[in-house]
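Exercise 4. Each item below gives a protein and its sequence. For each, produce the structure-token representation.

Item: 2,3,4,5-tetrahydropyridine-2,6-dicarboxylate N-acetyltransferase (Actinomyces howellii).
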Amino acid sequence: MEPAGPPRVAPSADVSKEAVIGDGSSIWHLAQVREHAVLGEGCVVGRGAYIGEGVRMGRHCKVQNYALVYEPAVLGDGVFIGPAVTLTNDHFPRAVNPDGTLKSAEDWEPVGVTIEAGASIGARAVCVAPVRIGAWSTVAAGAVVTRDVPAHALVAGVPARRVGWVGRAGRPLEPADPSPQGAPRWTCPVTGTVYEESDNTIREVSH
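Answer:
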């Protein structure tokens, strides 16, 4: 494999000199990447997107146009953030303190959204911190996530609830014959991988 090469940053992008951008990454027009943010190799930050101070992103993440990734969010490898997604960082937001004074950074403690490897967040979804999105799960467009999402879950609605399971290919899984123990099984229509349901999540049992 050829070297990825240095990051590509559009002239209109605002990237802090204190941010770390991995080789082969692209930061597009009008995007902003704040101080101490760390992006892994091969990431894409779309037009007008915002990456907050100290946000950490793994390798090969995609943050689409006008998404807002507020600190202290953590994204694993291969995470997809759709257009206009918002990852919040204040569970009890207020512009002012009880005495009417404007809140400063010292007047609140940010909480973050953690998204594990391979997960996808659909367009205009909102993830309300603190919340964890499990590996290879999918949050449907327009959903509002207020509680943790299990690995491989497909969640939708306001508030988001599980409506199915998805495999690594992102397609909804189809019912398969149950295991000898009676546990529900599911098949990926793309890869043929079989998953077994257990303890509010699923696991691969064959390819």
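Check: The first strand starts at residue 8 and ends at 9.
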